[in-house]
Structures
1.
Amino acid sequence: MADIRLSRVSKRYGSALVIEELSLDIKSREFVVFLGPSGCGKSTLLRMIAGLEDISAGEISIAGEVVNEVPARHRGVSMVFQNYALYPHMSVYDNISFGLRNTGVPRDEIRRRVTEATRILRIGELLDRKPRDMSGGQRQRVAIGRAIVRQPRAFLFDEPLSNLDAELRVQMRAEIARLHHSLNATMVFVTHDQVEAMTMADRIVVMRSGRIEQVGTPIELYRHPRNLFVAGFLGSPKMNFLPATVGGSGAGSLSLEIGAGRPVELAVDTYPGEIGSAATLGLRPEHLHLTSPEDGVLAGKVELVEKLGSTTHLHVALADDRLVIVEVSGESEARVDDLVGLDFQPASAHVFDADGNALPRPEP
Amino acid sequence: MNGFNRAIRVQNPWIDRLILGATILLAILWVIPALWIVSLSFRPNFLLMRSTAGVLPIPFTTENYELILRLSRVPGWFFNSAMTALLMTTMVLVVSSLAGYAFARINFPGRRILFIFVLTGLMVPEQAVFIPLHTMFADLGLHNTYVALATPRVAVPIGVFLMTQFFRAVPREIEEAAELDNASRFTIFWKIMLPLAIPALTTLGLFTFLHAWNDFLWPLVSATDDDSYTVTVGLASIQSNYAQTEGLGMVMASAVLASLPVFILYLIFQRYIVSGVSMGSSR
Amino acid sequence: MTTQELSGALPEATTSGRPAWFRRSDAWQGYLFIAPFLLVYCVFLVYPLFKGFWISLHDWELVGTYREFIGFLNYEDLWYDSLFWKSLWNTIRFVALTVPSMTLLAMLLALAVSKRTRTHAVLRAVFFGSSVFSVSVVTFIWQMMLNGERGMLAHIFEALGLVPIDYLRDSFWAMPSLVVTTLWWGVGLPLALFVAALQQIPEELYEAAELDHASRWTVLWRITLPSIRRTIVLVLVLQIVAHFQIFGQPLLMTRGGPADSTRSLVQLIYDTGFRDWQIGYAASMAMVLFAIMLVVSMIQLFLGREERS
């Protein structure tokens, strides 16, 4: 298995700079997810690693060897495409073995590898079928099988689950995770779905507009997002953002004025600026809990109650009409139009300065 | 589905039935001319010379066909048409698929300009070039050959255009997957693109075959020996003489035979032929 | 098709991000793939086009080696050639008679048979079927139908006690006979185009009209026809270009008569070049024909572009 190193990689389409001086180290056998909204460059980056796109500047190395000038077929990587990209007129067996036939692998070796791959993916009975006679999930497995038999140094996945329905997606997520475990392979996975990223990744690379916003393990990114973008991208329902102004600061602590409630005292390592400067308070829905309107730091009226069975989401409109979502475990007794107060553990709050960067806070 | 009829169906079913009835009547009238000729071809020649009245082939005989097949040049012409059509179709399919794939998927310098250069050729009618083509082949002494009959029309870019459109529509990822699968460009073309292109190639092939078989102006000026005629030109040469009192039945039989291959192909491949002709015209 | 459409018909521009190594071999591979076609194209279409013009500047005989450069004299002669103008006029008359009637007939038929039912499919097959015959078969069939003594129409007239008309030799009926023959032969293509266009009109338009209690006429004028406007224009242009080239029908059915009243331009070109052996003169006529058709095609491109804006 190989490690992949990206060193100040840039990509230009004409005059548009799509990826800007991006550097990243992917360790051997790691499962890395490129996560971001459409157009952030994650697929482009993946395709540059594969060799399907030019590299405008910088270097990409696989297993220590610079591969900028190396053709895709010689880079030792396999790719699973979003639309499966199976050869429509070939059977499953021919689809999977096509690459091996082109490389002159002997026939019995081909048969051995194909049988093994289809066994792992449980599609052994489909060997003679054509892609059009199979479901989306089956086709995706054939695509993965095709990637496996080439015994690549790294697997690249370009949003492979986007075309599957919700239930199938959950299933395939688990399969791919299991595959990673059993093959112990380097895998780079591109998606816009943060749930996929959180569940499968060893590390997540969050991208926006051609740059890396933050790299870290799922929990790291969830607990310590470095900026507003990452904080808002991970977690569902999204983190609640409340605009605030700095009320006062003292040794290791900060007072924030929130328009809709009482001042909040938080322990911080650094200060966002002088009194009166802007800041943002970030509160995850599960960190808010209901209390009486008089006791809460924030107060508001319940606009909507969404019952999901295991949790309940309450949409609460604060005094300044800002909407905040509160996640309550189990069922809640709150009803629409109830006046409620909201409170939270200060340690669970996030603070962002005027530029959207998170302020480091001491561990609780 | 034509909503024109459907939407108002409930309001006025009688108008629909009237239209349908009139159309069926027209369809019956439509086939009568052709059927009449077929019918007459089965009547004895000497009776036809006296009178062509009547619709049914009574008394029935196959003598006209026997005569044609045994004694006339028609079988030879038939063979010429077949050879020419097959040659032309093969050439068109080969050059069009190669060029179509290149225009669709290979990024070579000057591709855009060359494509426009090729497309503008669609505006050149055959009458603008048949005279100089004639002199060219005459200088080389190549008239009355299959090559002369088949080659000029291969230059018409409609095939390239159709194949380019088709290959454009093949998803790029399939090619990328093949690249990663270590396939060379020619392997991709041969093992993936061509198999996928079989429907388009069938349409183009039938469309070209039809055109080759029915071609008139060029074979008329190029194949001047009686023996080298294609069946279309040959039929034209003998029908001019029908006013004379011999062989009316034979001319009928020749006409039927001349149409037979194309008509059979039409019956079998109707879908392809219709779609090919429409595609070819709407460019 | 506009030039934008022409080049838009081509896939995306060069910087689609092909890796450098592939791009180097792209060039010669690309040329290799298009070489066979380009060779045939240049030799059998481009070169003859220029050579045709060159020939038209000569007094050139078909057989033998007599060739004399005379500049634009052929074109001057054309200008004063009454037979040329007659043939051109005949051709225009033919186009003016055939194109509107063909388009109308095709459209009416299309409106009647474009449902996706078995019956309609059979009917469509019948009307399209007559287009697969070659010109010699079609002209033979209709010569037999229209002949003054042996024709089917003649027999019908006689049965009704009327005097049969020899249509192809009648100075009034000769041209219309060619038109009818061409209609029978050619309605298949525009029919197919109209049927395809009609079948693409979304059902929802008709359903909305039904809910709005629209009458059959309203639906036809307000929904159906506007939706196929582009196809109508396309059909008209294709027809004009195609029928300008009419050759087989006058050659084989009326021989250009009676009294040159049906002689078409292409027929004149053929006669001049291959019967009278004056291919220089014939080439000049061919160039004029080409110019006319080019103008018509340009108009279509222009119309297409207008529509888009």
2.
Amino acid sequence: MRSAIDDAEAVARARGGDLDAYAVLVARYTLRAHRAAFLLGAGEEADDVVQEAFVKAFRHLSRFRVGESFGPWLLRIVANETRNLTRSRRRRAALALRLGAAEPGGAAAGGPVDEVLAAERRARLLAAVNTLPDNERQVLVCRYFLELSEAETAQVLAWPLGSVKSRTWRALNRLRGLLVPGEQSRISHG
Amino acid sequence: MGDRPGWQGLVEAELLAVGRSLEVPPAGDLTAVVRQRLEGRAPSRRHGPALGPLRGRLRWRAALVVLAALLVVLIATPQGRAAIAHVFRFAGVEIRQGPGPARHPGSRASLPGQHGMSLERARRQVSFPILVPAALGRPGEVVVSDRGRVVSLIYRRTPYGLVRLDEFAGHLDQFVFEKFVHSGDVTEVRVNGTRGLWIKGPQELVYITRDGTTVAASARLTTGNTLIWGTRQVAVRLEGNLTRTAALAIADSAR
């Protein structure tokens, strides 16, 4: 189907200078890139980070390898721009992430009491995520909040796959005690 | 992950649930400004003077202007002038003005990995609350596709003929459907106090997977008119031979 251009075709055409084709990629990936920038620590500057990332991505399209997925490739640039930003403002990248207000009449599988308990448990978990060391928080953001695979996370954060695995494991271990009763004693404080 | 202990799955599931209820502010529409910068018409926005508290409001207004401009152009531009003239997105749907379909989309179009099941089972399989319009009652058919990413409610016998609702998680950061508007018009409407889009006339509809590829087998022409709206948790497109009033009444009754 010619009218529905997929990412690969849009990239190929954008590489040849077709700004209409690039606009398709910008429209398609803005929300995803914005969510990544915001959650990785850009906060309210996420729009600026994403704008910068799209401009850089276009200029670096020649480095995009055929067969690669555009999403993780772009998110690596977004993550890098976010890092530059948080470094330049000399603060910890930590951004206190918050849960959105639950929608009334939402999916309350086990009734209102279960819903309240689940919300409390999630609030506690998120508070714990917010206090994790930077690299552990970043890996959790990629794996579970952006729902990237281990390989995609390695690409986005520019880490070896082994570091993704070990940091994920360490972070999950720290959070374990919050969710599994009787596991508190095993939380590592290392 | 053969030796993965049980607790790990538990923590991972909770983290995914947290991720899906995180508060993320709305993204600005960047297509116009990125294009201007690539054409060398706009200076870099970064490192500019901070606008302080005004900034958010200015950006929001700019986004609105862009959207309105696109809507106007969408209707007024002659067909076939450019392959992709204008793009905008709304509640998980990417809408483009474009020339007619290269081939006639199949009448037996399907979404990837679709399974028919009961409404109750579907509710357990997807991460978002499924909205069912009281005005239509229980759906005749419920189909879950792409590992729980989309739920379709199909009503075959309504006063309006076949009516279909496609629902997907409102937090989705990827566009699930792509529409090519060949003719007809797009208007902004209010659904239950939130924004919605009313699209008159048939459009070509294509499903986009998580990695951004379009699924050719999913391409089809929509029937009748379409209403798109979303809550924080779920985005919905309602399709059928409906008048605008009927579509809005159905949407308002969705719980």
3.
Amino acid sequence: MNKDLNMKVNVLPVLTYNFLRLNDSTILASDIRIDSFESPKLNVVPAGVTVESSVDFEKAGEVFRAYKERIQVTTGVPGDPNGDTSYRDKDQVLRTGMGIDVDEFMTEVSAKADIYTVDEGVKVSEPLVLHYDLKDGDGNVSAQVIHAKKNSEITLIMDYNSDKDASGFLGISTRILAEEGAKVNIVKSQLLGNGFLHFDDMGGACFEKGAINVIAVELGAYKAWNGCYINLSEKEADFNSNIAYLSRDDHELDINYVADHRGKKTNALMQFKGVLMGEAKKTLRFTIDFKNGSSGSAGDEQEDTLLLSDNVVNRTMPVILCQEEDVDGRHGATIGQLGEDLLFYMQTRGIDEEEAKRIMIKARLESVARMIPDPELMQKVIYFIQGIV
Amino acid sequence: MSENKQVVNEIDHSMYDFKDVENEQDFYRLKEGLSKETVLKVSEEKNDPDWMRDFRLKCLDIYNEIKMPDWGPSIEGLDMDRISSYVRHKSDMKGKWEDVPEDIKNTFERLGIPQAERESLAGVGAQYDSELVYHNVKDEVAAQGVIYTDLESALRSEYADMIKEHFMKLVPPTDHKFAALHGAVWSGGSFVYVPKGVKVEIPLQSYFRLNAAGAGQFEHTLIIVDEGADLHFIEGCSAPKYNVANLHAGCVELFVGKNARLRYSTIENWSKNMYNLNTKRAVVEENGIMEWVSGSFGSHTSYLYPMTILKGDNSKMEFTGITFAGKGQNLDTGAKVVHQGKKTSSVISTKSISKDGGIGTYRSSVVIQNSAKKAKASVSCDSLMLDSISRADTIPAMDIRTNDADVGHEAKIGRISDEAVFYLMSRGISEEDAKAMIVSGFANPVSKELPLEYAVEMNNLIKLEMSGH
């Protein structure tokens, strides 16, 4: 199948000045070859986990539809105060970071989802690993649904890789439901070739004391879009994310993360560590949204970006929305090049500027890479980073 | 918070909410709505030069083409067909206070303007509805060559070319719909020129009063601070409350020369039926300094983001703002800055308080262009929620296009800390007083930037009356 893409994605939860062109992003591409609609299969399915393969994307949404009232996907109407855009995604069975255009695309191309269900109380000790080994010219569109029942725990690692000069297309949708006390760890490593176009959309809902943790390392592809929308719908739900990215040459990276606090005493932490080189362009939107009823909640969004070339474009929108009195919302950003004091310190220890830069890039990216719970993949990511720097 | 909490009262607007009985025969009022005829009529009233009349008509075309903003607070309640663009008293502008018509004089007396002029200002302009009714500058300031006059007079003076060169060049009518509207029907406002090297020791002030119901005020303020000069300009605004919407779409253009400094302070207290869609912009040349102090307390709906273009190398900007959104208010405020010159620096520091269902939004943009090597930008915005029916949003944006820049950003949203209240109470201070102290302390970074008498006015405005239950 060859497909033209024209999708509006990563729409900010509330709009701002149009002149900044930050309110959303467009995926525009023509004649994209897609030859696979399936996720990689597991060699071994652990006890307590059921995998339902190749379910129609739309039908896989039944998992969330069954909990419609608790997930509360529908909010807002056009014209809501402050340019609220939630009405746009009101028909999504589960809101995702990139939004409804991805769902519609998945349905249109008849993408298939694999549904991983973890039985109540089952804690899967070994991570499940999906290897996307893509070759030059490959096109894959696939989806996953992870349904962790009460007090269960699962770790899913998704490893996207190809030769470094390979071209192709990879479109992913990952939707997660963490029931009461359940914990879902998602690890994504993106080491795609320099000619890849890539999008990776995530959405999740956490019930009482449920938790979703995301670790992601974004290092490849010439154009990449990431979205993640986590609905902390019940009390003491938790969302923790650690993202490292490196964008270089003329690559473009566009990210939209949202923590939607609805339950009481919910927590979200979003940490981004990035490096921009060459003529790379990066846009990061991240939002903490304290809805009515989320009293006692805390949200923290942090960004640390190292700019290593004078031709990079670094755009950031750190949004905090708040309709609740008893909350603690924080944002912090540090953006710039290596400080002169730090370089001087390094030089006094015999480390020249180039070496100091290499050390700092590695330190930044590897701090997240080392969180990858699969030693082999972790080493692969670290080698990839070393190869670049 | 417990049920037994203190009450932080909303801002007391009653001191501004008196209506003067306007005798209809004393006032000239254009019929409501906006059309080519309306614009031509305003132009005729102002005795515009030809270029200005043509400019107004061009702006009307642009207004009709540009869509309403799709971001920010709703302005659906604003119906231009029910807004009169021009209302004026039939008397002319006066240079002596005693010559100002009695009814208007009473209004400004009650607002304390003449007293302030006597005690602490170098000059005063007072606008009532669409026209300036009084303009005066102290002799010693005029002797320094400082021009402080209404814009219409300046358009017919030796400064006409200077105005033509600068008018709506910084805020072009294509900027947004209400900038175009302003260009079409602007009336009143001040022109200030501070010559090279002149330092005006005490502030100038313009006060804008919109007394008519269902009317718009579209004053234009144009300030040019020449090389090495220094000025503090204060702007105050108020209006009585009516049940119909009023509109304020003013425009402020500030030109800060090489090594010059301009401080622009605003205490905005429009009534709660006001749509405040104001545009303010400054361009700063080499080593120049632009300082904004902005207090937003009134209005039903506000869109207000003073913008600074740091064009010259080493130019600097500081923005200190506070917004208090109470019942029925949706105040969308913040600042914008564009760094163009080398070693430019900007510091934005804002405080926002939301109460009784009020919506306070901090919105900003920091743009660092590739040319702005060694630029530094720092943004800090704190929001305080005083209850759970209100809303406080923080929507900042950063666009950085050089690696040779240093940008920091911090935002916090929260409530009055229980620990801080407990600490103060453990020192013998009552809960009510403790909370009042904390809220006053929260607002303090802004009030300390104002001249004493305006800080007092701001504190009066906030009137954080505490009472226990």
4.
Amino acid sequence: MKRFAVLSVLLLFSSVSHAQNAPSDSAKNAVPSAGTDDARMKALEEQVRSLAGEVALLRSELKEFRESKSPEQLSSPQLLLASTHPQPGTLASVPAPAAPQTTQTQTFGGASGNAKLLNPDISLIGDFIGTAGRNNVSPSPSLQMHETEVGMQAIIDPYARADAFLSFGETGVNVEEAYITFTSLPAGLLLKVGKMRADFGKVNTIHNHALSFIDRPLVTNNLVGGEDGIDDAGLSLSRFLPAPKNWFLEGTAQVFRGDSDDLFTAYRRQDLSVVGHLRAYRDLSESTNLDLGLSYSRGNSAGLQTASNPSAFFTNLYAADTTLRWRPLRRAIYHSFLFRNEFFWSARDQLSLANAFQTQHAFGFYSSAEYRANRRWTIGGRFDRSGRATNASLTDTGFSGILTYWPSEFSQIRGQYRYGHLWDTSNDRFTNANEFLFQFLFVMGAHGAHPF
Amino acid sequence: MPRLFTNTRPTAIVSSLALVFALLCPLTGSADSKIRIMTATTDLASLAQEIGGDKVDVESVARGYQDPHFVDPKPSFLLKLSKAELLIVVGLELEIGWLPPLITQSSNPRIQVGAPGYFDASRFAKILELPTGQVTRAEGDVHPLGNPHYWLDPDNGLRIAKGIQNKLSEMRPNDAAYFAQRYDSFEQRLKQSEQQWQAQMKPYAGRKVVTYHRSWPNFAEHFGLNVVGYVEPRPGIPPSPQHTVELIGQMKRDGVKIIMVEPYFDLKTPNSIARDTGAQVVVLMPSVGGEKEITDYFKLFDYDIARLKKAFDETH
């Protein structure tokens, strides 16, 4: 207790001396420029006001200090010194301009996340999936903690921000995405560097927990590298493009190392893969909008380690996506509708059974719709049809229906019925798969942005 | 496949695309003398317009009748944000679900968080409901930095306007006198209106009311209303039957006759509560532009106070 008293006296002393110094500087500046008595009085008044402000600030600071030392006195609501702490997210890198009005001391401004200080925004999303029913072609476990995704996001410095998402699955940890975004480049360029989900179509960019369905469409598995899709280390450059009135155009060019699951493999260092994406968007009305996209990707076909020159085998992927959204602004939390189609064409160079060079041309698409019926319930359906990248003559078909319940914005419970007419490679025939999937999703930590 | 060709192709494509982007687009930021301002909400737009006058072009991302927690980050906003010199936000994590991606994707260095063109209005306002103990989402979608609906206190409007005046003067020192004069005029008009509003609300001082969401603490404090309950059991959680029954009981005990509802909430539950308690549902506008006639910050309070006054008179 004694030590504390000494400390507070010291603190008081040092702060008072500080308070005396600071305004005297400003007074020196103010007086010579004043000239008349009136201005002098004003300057003095200003000085007194600022001193009063400082004293109030110091008092409350001292009070806070005392209270933090004696938790039993914490019952009364505490004033938080917003102005003395950095804003959340602004970090210390950019000094918040000290408010010129000295009246703005303790009572104005929010709490500014004192506890957080320079920590990144951290979130964790749990994704639990259960499956029942029959599927011989791509069976999944009955119950699984499918993924636990940890996200960390922060502003790095005045020129960049960074986002990292680590997913802990049943088999290990995967850096799903980790990239820095340079937001202050000239000419409106946006540069991302790191590992990221490629800007190829729509569903490829979406994290598992943000999908409209529990699973990804069939075509993703057949043609675009499965659950992880095109997700690779590289660079991405994007920019808005000049567009006709009321249209929004954005172009993205990305170059990756060339390793994406069972889609692309870099056999040599120069076997890079590329992605190009063009997005066009238009508001049809206040509540309705249309979102169109064209994508291209090229890389070396995966799985050709046995070939004599695997770097000569390419997979070219083309995609087109259309999304129609409806969300009435006055009832945005109750009703919305989304209709989305994505079409994929794959041209894959590979070795035929006779070990000759061949190119398989496969096509696949999905068409999905979801409707938010009220604040807590969403229903949706999806039709799937896709050839197989390695054998375009085999076409899998399927459809799904899904019901989502939202206890709150931070958890979801879903049930999905999935039918598949799938080629069973081991038995050389088509089989029917009838499955019921259910999912529990939960979010903790930082409030992420809603996907759009 | 010729080897040389395939080796160079990917990088060539990327670099040529980059070149095309760079060439196609003229540099943004013309010598236009008006300051281009984007705001998160219409109220901030109205305040910026009051101070900026004809020296600014102001536009809001959210509409006045829209729930400011849930705005779609449409790409059409990106174009506007990419050209903005000043972005005024409500802050306190009100826009956390939609504004951060818009800011990042705007690729506009001037309005990035912490840049000189990023203006967080909450830094100038008196904030209520600052959580003191532990903050968990058992309380619903709480705002850990305090209640973000602070603009519904005219005193805060004045404080924010002062902040905007300083910011604009900093950006256009030559027009500082103009902005100062606009601020003085705004202050004077606001104080006049304030007297009328207080006079209109005086007879109802201390009246107990129920609100749908916690949007009105600043309004209630300023005009002497006593908010005793909420239709939402917790912020962001839809009404539950059990909570509704409890609320009805409480309203009957306390003689609460007014249920204040924001325009973006469903009226089913409030209406049924009103039927059971003899109370009246009053749809109040939390923001400028909520109705066509609410064209500025003054008319916002004119509208809400007129509605409240009428409801108080009718239920008594």
